[in-house]
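Handover notes (outgoing to incoming on-call)

Open items:
1. Alkyl hydroperoxide reductase/ Thiol specific antioxidant/ Mal allergen: sequence verified, structure written out, both below. Nothing else pending on this one.
2. Nothing else urgent.
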Amino acid sequence: MKTIPEFVLKDAYGKEFSYKNLFGDYWVIYFYPKAGTPGCSMEAIDFTSHIEEFEGKVVGISPDKQPALCRFIDSRKLKVILLSDPDKAVAGKFGVVENGKIVRSTFIVDPLGRIRKSWLKVKVPGHVKEVLEEFKRIKQEDKQISPDILARRAYRGLRSDPIPKEDLIRLIEAAHLAPSCFNNQPWRYIIVTDKQTLEKLWESLTSGNYWMKNAPAMIVVYTKEDFDCKLSDNRNYALFDTGLSVGFLMVQATRMNLVAHPVAGYDPLKVKEIFGIDGIVITLIAVGKRGNFDSLNEKHLEREFGERQREPFEKILKIF
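Alkyl hydroperoxide reductase/ Thiol specific antioxidant/ Mal allergen structure tokens:
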């Protein structure tokens, strides 16, 4: 997903407006060729008529100089913010310049500065209504729980199909983007796909994790106490931060239509011996595609297709 380019322009009254002003809110940025022309006037008036629904967050950018923008605002009673881009440098950064001219275009930007929707070569009639509908839809969508979090489950019915190396590495790339105390990044990962090494890992599993032997890949996650912050009241952030990292990995796996199922049922001493690990083995993660259910016992088969089990919300949340 693209993010807004850096820019600083002046508005109709000479005040600087920066890309930084966009962070924290949803905005509409639209580019138009020339103030005062029929199509540009209609578009600006349409945005103005819906400015409250856009919460005042509409910016129009054109090559016009500030005096022309002032006249445009006064003559059409506009309520949008108009910025002057005389050399079309910012328009160029947004990719809306063709043959030296600005192409009428619109972008919706979210509070993190990501461009969520774009329209190029816009036709003015009905355009603002379409933008408003998308603006409202994106805002509402962003209040929902991520579909990848909703879809994530601790499935056990894994197929043995090999997972491409680059896909497994992508999971670790996602995990490595997790936050950590003072950015210490205490997590360490080992990807295992070699059959002989997998068989050694199987020997460390408890009997209830028999299903992991179908997984084409396993990931060993470990850390060490002195890799991260040690704080008051025995707070060892190496454990917390590594857990956050694993959470990122699991969501990314779901995004990629994979199952990443971490377990606690293994002999950590055996795992450390296999890989020469000096530290704490936090978890083993089975990674694979879902779809093999024949080997599951009755209890696990029931869980595989049963409803997600969660404690009552009132048990885990207090609000003061």
